Amino acid sequence: MSNITQMAYSMIASAGDAQALQFKALEDAKKADFGAAEKILGEADELLLKAHELQTNLIKDEANGVKNELSVLLIHAQGYVNNAILNKKLIEQMIDIYRELRT
């Protein structure tokens, strides 16, 4: 398995796990368990950071002239990371709304 393929799988796994935790946090917020939601969001952030760092390293490599193999898997991994970043922003806003509705 190539290094790029391994990085893509790592990006997918980390971003996918982050998204699952983000939605778990949203479920906790719906139940007004904001402490649990914040804790889980922190765990999701750690995973998302890992995925984002892998993505950033690929971008830095390309900027430095390193040509990486382009594959559907890598494109899929990029989509996963980008979706997890967007979900993070949306879910944080939704949790804020739940919090405001409860106070």
TrEMBL record:
Phosphoprotein recorded as keyword: yes
Phosphohistidine, modified sites: H76
Alphabetized Gene3D superfamilies for the sequence: Phosphotransferase system, lactose/cellobiose-type IIA subunit (1.20.58.80)
Database matches in Pfam families: PTS_IIA
Regions crossing the membrane: none
InterPro entries hit by this protein: PTS_IIA_lac/cel, PTS_IIA_lac/cel_sf
Cofactor: Mg(2+)
Signal peptide: none
Main location: cytoplasm
Subcellular location, record wording: Cytoplasm
Alphabetic keyword roster: Cytoplasm, Magnesium, Metal-binding, Phosphoprotein, Phosphotransferase system, Sugar transport, Transferase, Transport
Subunit structure: Homotrimer.
Protein known as: PTS system lactose-specific EIIA component
UniProt organism field: Pectinatus haikarae
